[in-house]
Write a structure and sequence with these properties.
single chain; 3 domains; 23 helices; RNA-binding; EC 6.1.1.19; cytoplasm
Amino acid sequence: MKSIKHAIATAVAEHTGFPAADIVNLIEYPPNPELGDLALPCFQFAKQLRKNPALIASELADKLAGIDGIGNANAQGGYLNLTLERSTYALSIVDRALQSVHDLFSEERGTGHTVAVDYSAPNIAKPFGVGHLRSTIIGQAIVRLMREDGYRVEGVNHLGDWGTQFGKNIAAYLKWGDEETVRKNPVRELFKLYVRFHEEAREHPELEDEGRYWFKQLEEGHEQANRLWRWFIDESLRAFQETYKTLGVEFDHYLGESFYNDKMDAIVDELRAKGLLVEDDGAEVVDLSAYDMPPCIIKKSDGTSIYATRDLAAADYRHRVLGADTLVYVVGAEQKLHFQQVFKVLELLGRDYAKRCTHVAFGLMKFNGERLSTRRGHVVYLEDVLNKAIEEAKRIIQEKNPNLADQDGVARSVGVGAVIFNDLKTYRIHEVDFRYEDVLNFDGETGPYVQYTHARACSVLRKAGTDAQPLNWPTQVQPDDVEWALILRLAQAGEALARAVDEFDPSVMARYVLHVCHAFNRFYHNNPILQADDPLRAARLALTQATRNVIAKALYLIGLDAPQEM
RNA sequence: GCGUCCGUAGCUUAGUGGAUAGAGCGCUGGCCUCCGGAGCCAGAGGUCGGGGGUUCGAAUCCCUCCGGACGCGCCA
């Protein structure tokens, strides 16, 4: 699609004197396919050229009719509408989808860049709730999308394994904990203790001091404190790995906050040497009032570190050791100010990568309209959600496809896919009110719908037995309207990837693949494939396989499995 | 109070300067002697939160008001 747009823009630039690069962005898809395949509104040119838009459009139509690949050009109410030569174009798109679907999606725009993506980052000794789902799967999708676009990507899990909360964990465990009970169900028991700590702290605020005391002990290397802390981490990590395995999520590095304990002094010293550190109420801060921001606390008044300090050290580590020139943080929108402060401090430190830091914010996840709060023990366990979805998938399989092999495996792919897709399909900044009735509905714009479409295409190809034969679109076949609509969708894969990457927004890809599926299902419904006669049958089989490749790739990019049967 | 974000059909939402505002869920109706009905087709349902402005053209940009969420120094 890009090359044809380019050819059009070049010709229009010649005629109007406007830069071709700007014209490319003006080209759009007409609201109604009867108008044409591509359109260029000519209103912008009117002022400069001192002609009315309708006249410009019709002059351009004459000019463009001769371009290779353009079947028809006509003017309509200030718009220049263009129709492509269907069979030529069908061959080129289907061929690319069959030979190398990667090339259909990617122009390798990220070549030469390394990006560190920070995602998931669950807290040790706390359950993995649905709230953590968003960062985890948005981040995983961004990793795959950027890799597809040619970036070298380092996925980092910035585990919450340090901070005052562990002082609280330790204090609570020493007060009320019992080794035996914790050992049996570590995350759940530790969490119970943590919640109790906050409940009792409401009546006895001195508990907070006790928590801070134990955190200070931890930072100063107190032996028992460190042993307990290590234990909490081992147990939690084991539980998290299970969840990641179910979700199909992977990381290149597990680098928790504690990893930076010995790397913060360098940053603090540098801040001090550059005169950026000032004392304020006993704490050491970077004053950001010149940028209309509250100060960034670097050291608390009791001398212990804080998350901003760790984020600064982590940023340097990702740049220097991991080689990243671009840093991406997939973290909730409520931390927006924090990241603005950290990025500003990096800039003040003279880090050249500071301008290539992005906070990919997303909206809060609520449950039945209520805010989830780990402190108050209000959590929805992700494990429970996934299990329910998998059960529902299994139930539907038994109802609709009882002879399917590997029902458990497929039910897992479909159930998990439903949960992931439900989260990714909406623009990430919106709040999500998690409701089982939505997640467990497998009709309409859902993961199972996309997977079903993929399985259906696979089924046709299996029956045709053509998997080994080279397929392609025979040029003597003219695509009909339904086939053409599908081909045009496939042709937009590259635009979908580029936009998803530029906006760090997987929902772009999720919506794209929904459009592909709808176009394919329409095609499937209207046009017999296997019973067609040969040039047509070959064409439709090729289109089916091209579509299957595109769907499979898109599903992979947003982190869903693509079962061949379901 | 200040700052940021969000407000589009009953619900979830797409579209962020261009043609009659597009989908899905739910609701109503139609389509399996035919490649998988987790599908396809059609219908009802919209003062694009209100008002003002900029523009040939505004859901989209600016101002203002209303509603909601989040944030605003030692939690992350």
